[in-house]
Amino acid sequence: MMIVQHTEAIILMDPIIYKAAEQGNLRALEKKYDISHLLDEFLTVNKNTILHICISSILVKEKFPATGGTDLASAVKFVEDVLSKCPAFLLKANVEDDTPLHVAARSGHASIIKVLIDCKKSQHQDLENVVATKEMITREMIGMLNKKGDTTLHDAVRHNHIEVVKQLLREVDREFSFGANGAGETPLYLAVERHFPDLVSEILNTFQSPAYDGPLGRTALHAATFSNDAGMIENILERYGRDLCKQTDQKGWTPLHLAAYLGCVEPTKLLLQYGREVAYMKDAEGRTALHIAAHRNQEGVTKEIISMCPDCCEVVDNEGRNALHLAVHSRWPTAALIIQNNPSLRNLLNQADNDGNTPLHHYYNSVGYMKGVLNSPRVDEMVFNKKNQTAFQILRSKRFPTDGDEVT
């Protein structure tokens, strides 16, 4: 039997060091150690430095106050003093690749952020060009990625720390663009998704062209639509214009498809005002936003789309179905009434899909029933589908399955 010996040394931090860092007490630490020469001895098992520990231990006013820790003023002094003696701590990352700046941004400590950035600036005092100094700070510090792909701006935005966000944005150029993290989220997308309108405005007003990407091919406009926030939608559209309305996610959904699914009337109006052509765009299954609104029985959105884009009702999906085909499948198909009672849409009443089924075939095979649906004299009840079935025969087959097949 072979015994594997682990030769890698396990780093253990002296509890005196840990306690001193937690309390922001440099004097207690220096009684035993010279911090300017023993950087590696000031690491925990997860490679957190005394700066990580101190910043994480800052006490804030909470409903359930913690014991121990340090106040903000003491922490600021501790960080300043440590960096003056050992600047190498500034960019030292832990096992998650979090720098002290990541920890400060995540915790919302703007004053600590200032100390850390000022320290970085002091290392480049020989640079006469202020722009070059900013680029250096952005690239080497604010733009550093942890293992999740987050920059410090991602962390600050995620936790809605607006003062930290402002502090960070003051240090970057307008042309700089923070990309997506490992989850596919840009800072702008995070701010929109989490419904932080002040942060959205701050990012849009700071950068010339901030990245708006999100996961699964979504954009910040998808996220704003999901939040049903007309203000954020307008803010985003004013910056990026109508082309953003046309960007689709991995399912082929535009923001309008999402608004239709959720029944968001105001976002629907805004999106159509910026570009009616988006109402004619199909997803991977060939469905327009109207198909989805009708299928979901979203009356308000159905009315709005038909009002602004009446001829999009003519668009069929990959199975040849129009919006009425899908509307009748709802348990309470009131959206179907909106379509069938529109005089200009009477041609949809008897339109057959790829299998020859009319909306009436689908209705008689649906789970719901509502008085008045497809009871128009213009509905042809004797249309045969490609299985040579009328709608009434479909209804009979549901009651007596041996009589025939159901519509699928």
Automatic annotation (TrEMBL):
InterPro entries from the UniProt entry: Ankyrin_rpt, Ankyrin_rpt-contain_sf
A Pfam family (short name) is: Ank_2
Please indicate if the UniProt record lists Repeat as a keyword: yes
The superkingdom of the source organism is Eukaryota
Check the UniProt entry and state the signal peptide residues, or none: none
Which keywords does this Swiss-Prot/TrEMBL entry list? ANK repeat, Repeat
What are the GO cellular component annotations?
Answer: plasma membrane
Query: Which positions does the entry assign to ANK repeats?
Result: 96-118, 148-170, 251-283
PANTHER family noted in UniProt: PROTEIN PHOSPHATASE 1 REGULATORY SUBUNIT, SERINE_THREONINE-PROTEIN PHOSPHATASE 6 REGULATORY ANKYRIN REPEAT SUBUNIT A-LIKE
Name the chain's protein. Answer: Serine/threonine-protein phosphatase 6 regulatory ankyrin repeat subunit A-like
The gene for this chain is LOC118348880
